[in-house]
Write a structure and sequence with these properties.
Elements (H helix, E strand, L loop, with lengths): L13 H8 L6 E3 L6 E3 L3 E5 L14 E5 H7 L4 H30 L2
Antiparallel strand pairs: 1-2, 3-4
């Protein structure tokens, strides 16, 4: 279900509800996607099934995430996001490998 463009989730307290439902480690929370830790004010609440794709504000559809992961995930599902991250890591490794091989060839090693 696609929502009309520009339609935003109502702020009906879903952020507070998710933080209240999620246990913290002495006020520290962990990103569902990368494991980074942060205080409540540094973390965001992500719609697991994005709002734009029919997701709800129910706490079962919410996850605590760091700002970087939440912004990078955008309208993707968690599975789509993980695949995108793996593809980016593969690209970075391939570029690094090619760079090392060029250096080896240049230096004759």
């Amino acid at each position: 279900v696609q929502r009309p463009k520009g339609m935003r989730p109502r702020q009906g307290g879903y952020r507070e509800a998710k933080f209240n439902e999620t246990s913290s480690n002495h006020g520290w929370y962990y990103c569902k996607y990368c494991g980074k830790s942060g205080r409540k004010e540094d973390m965001e609440v992500d719609h697991v099934l994005p709002w734009a794709r029919g997701g709800s504000n129910d706490v079962s559809n919410l996850a605590i995430s760091c700002r970087a992961c939440n912004r990078a995930k955008g309208k993707q599902t968690p599975d789509e996001f993980e695949i995108m991250k793996m593809m980016q890591e593969d690209d970075m490794l391939e570029k690094e490998y090619r760079s090392v091989m060029r250096d080896i060839k240049r230096n004759g090693r």
